[in-house]
Amino acid sequence: MSKILIIEDEIPARNKLKRCIQSVDGTATILAELDTVETAIHFLQHTQPDLIFSDIELLDGNAFAIYEQVQVNCPIIFTTAYDQFW
């Protein structure tokens, strides 16, 4: 059972990710759905997921600010709807 963190500020995108995750691994647990850099930093200071799906542009800034401040020991899959971030 994988413990997954979703960092995404758009609700439709979060819902699509959750459906996709559940279709691939029905035993996966979504630990949290976060929408800001600030909440992600706080969460990751206390919890280590097995996998992170992370949007790049969030409500309060760029997600790379999270990973500059918190050490993460799991894979991160970056998601975005914007061509300039590919």
Question: How would you describe this structure to a colleague?
Answer:
The chain contains three helices and six strands; from the N terminus they run βαβαβββαβ. By secondary structure, the protein is an alpha/beta fold. It is globular. The protein starts with a strand and ends in a 7-residue tail after the last strand. The strands form two sheets. The protein has a four-stranded parallel beta sheet. The chain has a two-stranded antiparallel sheet with strand order 4-5.
Major beta sheet, specifics? Answer: 4 strands, parallel
Low-confidence stretches: none
The oligomeric state is single chain
Structural class: alpha/beta
Order of helices and strands: EHEHEEEHE
Q: What is the count of β-strands?
A: 6
Q: Which properties best describe this structure?
A:
86 residues; alpha/beta; 3 helices; 4-stranded parallel sheet
Helix-strand layout with pairing:
Blueprint: E1 3-7, H1 11-24, E2 29-34, H2 37-46, E3 51-55, E4 57-58, E5 61-62, H3 64-69, E6 76-79
Parallel strand pairs: 1-2, 1-3, 3-6
Antiparallel strand pairs: 4-5
